Amino acid sequence: MDAIILQILNGLDKGSAYALIALGLTLIFGTLGVVNFAHGALFMIGAFCAVTLNRILTLSHQVVDESRKDFLGNPLKVDVPYVNDWFGEAAGATIIDWSVPLAILFSIPVMIAIGVIMERGLIKHFYRRPHADQILVTFGLAIVLQEIIKYFYGANPIPTPAPDVFRGSFDFGVLLGFDPNVIIYPYWRLVYFAFAALIVGAVFAFLQFTTFGMVVRAGMADRETVGLLGINIDRRFTIMFGLAAAVAGLAGVMYAPINSPNYHMGMDFLVLSFVVVVVGGMGSLPGAVLAGFVLGVLESFASMNEIKSILPGIDQIIIYLVAIIILLTRPRGLMGRKGVMED
Amino acid sequence: MFGLGKKDTTVFVVVIILALCAPFILNPFPGNSSLAQFNAGYPDLMQRFVIFGIFAIGFNLLFGLTGYLSFGHAAFLGAGSYAAVWMFKLLSMNVIPAILLSMIVAGLFAVVIGYVSLRRSGIYFSILTLAFAQMSYNLAYSVLTPITNGETGLQITLDDPRILGASATADGGIPVTNLFGLEMRHFTTVDIAGWSFNFSVGYYLCAVIMILAFYVAVRIFRSPFGMMLRAIKSNQQRLYYTGLNARPYTLAVFVISGMYAGLAGGLLASMDPLAGPERMQWTASGEVVLMTILGGAGTLIGPVLGAGFIKYFENIFSKINDGVLHGWFSFLPDGLENVVITLLHPFVGKGWHLTLGLMFMLVVIFLPGGLVEGGQRIAKALRRGRTEDNGAARKASHEPAE
């Protein structure tokens, strides 16, 4: 029992990342009808937003510290971040420590801007082209974005720590009445899951309870009619693209402490996220979220030693295997709508 | 000629000339000139040109004719490589059985994957093939280690049985791949007035096979079978209404295309007898997609051009460093020289992927027909210029009735 709970917890953080990326992908697909292969790159750019903010905050200048000497007896030069000068030592240190959560605020405008520029500058011209062309051009864009990041940040992963408060692990088992140290779980992953749930909730609430969301949903159902009613649906869809980019970016920002960002992390996630979208059902938002969590948890179950001893290698292929089975038995995915991408 | 139309014969002859004269064509600069680093006429690289040409021709048969975009073709390349290396380990170092087996194995593999994947079309087909390829890659990395030797990759060793050949050469070394005694890695260098041309046995074997593969592809393009595949691309629904089942046709072309990939994999292993799982990774599948689209999907010669283009970029363009750039722009004033080099720096050398990505995007946006369409447009523009000089009457006689 404890092992099962542990695996479910372990699957949640990866599942959260899958769910958030798949949610963004589905938003773009459902509104604009575009298959966006550059979505993984947006996730990666989000993670690098965290890196960038961390670098900005730790920008420092050298100060001669008379109280500390090096081995020759000369006063030591110490790097002092500018934030320390502005906010005082303690507050400055806290700000640097909390750079990843702060990057959320930083990344939202950046990601929305990138998303809107992408849609207006490139994707807009591909609505009337075949899906294969859309896949190809966004695939090219993903390569370009990835290489730009590689040029500025290098090819090595950049460790980006979470705030000190979240560094330890949480003894989850005690809450449920198990012995201590049976089910322990890093705090940050818990935060990640809560954050993902919050974002998913926010997106659904936005679509469900605001006028803007209502118009967007109407546009997803019948774009032409909404346009005929005198609503500028294109502009709203552009904003939705920005929003989807922001969702992917936020998923990336918060993922930075779990996995040090490197330039190809987006591609690694993209392949799996596409599988997730297809399993969930192309164009279905709840399906994407559900499939994300289900596949994340399944993946962590498959990596249990008990299961691996019966079916060796299952942990490597479980997601693809599930995808193949689902696609063959339920061609529309778990919750796919009729008539989406069936031509 | 050879049962080809006039236009196809021209293309075919061009391909033959390109393939057979590649050691000259790819070596346009004398060995001691400053441009010598742009020579691509060394055996290893030329072999890659033609082998990936075969791979792209095969991919184009599937994507160019039926429009089914497979993102998992590298699985067949990898399977072919493994099969060939196993043949070298167990049977003999002759490349013929290895190449045959690699095609058979890749073909069988394609039957299984194709049978399942082709039940869906569009993006679902892409995802299914991607899923199968990633599965093969992950398995080759982990569980199938007894067959694939995992991360290290499969290599030939001294204690392999090799029942029809020797386990080791007379002086105790590992035998090399050969074609009835002709060693694949053997090459002769001919020096003519500063140029040195390499003629490699391995390259010419690959080139001859590429020419054959190209010929078969042309025949498929022009056959009733090829016509059927085009019909599938333009409107599958209507095909069903006329009472034709498209599935056997798509499966057949999927298997043929998989066998081309297997052949390419077998040749890769024949030139350099090792096989690793990274050949199956989805980035390798993406590469063949890039090659085909860049050259021109659905055209005969496009994939070959695209493959050569990308491999040239990968190996030659990536070698341009700041020193070379300084050499080129030394005629500019110092300040301007540095500005130009700073601007170019991200795009050359290690940044060649960026240039490739940009170029790929530009091709997809502006030239959906790839480099071939670009060439055709230029040719058309030139011809229009000429016919305007010669009057409209001649133009009318030149245009055949469609």
Q: Can you characterise this structure?
A:
The complex is a heterodimer of chains A (343) and B (402). Chain A contains 15 helices and 4 strands. By secondary structure, chain A is mainly alpha-helical. In chain A, a hairpin with a 5-residue loop joins strand 1 and strand 2. The model of chain A has no long low-confidence stretch (mean pLDDT 84). Chain B has a domain at 19-281. Chain B has helices at residues 6-20, 22-25, 43-66, 74-90, 95-117, 122-141, 145-148, 201-222, 224-234, 236-241, 247-271, 282-295, 302-315, 322-328, 334-344, 352-366, 370-390, 392-398, and strands at residues 154-155, 178-179, 182-183, 187-192, 195-200, 274-275. Chain B has 402 residues and is mainly alpha-helical. Helices cover 65% and strands 5% of the residues of chain B. Chain B is built from 18 helices and 6 strands. At the A-B interface, helix 6, helix 12 and helix 15 of A face helix 6, helix 12 and helix 16 of B.
Helix/strand layout:
The complex is a heterodimer of chains A (343) and B (402).
Chain A lengths: L1 H31 L6 H19 L2 E10 L5 E7 H6 L1 H9 L1 H23 L9 H23 L15 E3 H4 L8 E3 H23 L1 H11 L1 H6 L4 H23 L9 H16 L4 H18 L2 H6 L3 H16 L14
Antiparallel strand pairs in A: 1-2, 3-4
Chain B lengths: L5 H15 L1 H4 L17 H24 L7 H17 L4 H23 L4 H20 L3 H4 L5 E2 L22 E2 L2 E2 L3 E6 L2 E6 H22 L1 H11 L1 H6 L5 H25 L2 E2 L6 H14 L6 H14 L6 H7 L5 H11 L7 H15 L3 H21 L1 H7 L4
Antiparallel strand pairs in B: 1-6, 2-3, 4-5
Helix pairs in contact in B: 1-8, 3-8, 3-11, 3-12, 3-13, 4-5, 4-11, 5-6, 5-11, 8-9, 12-13
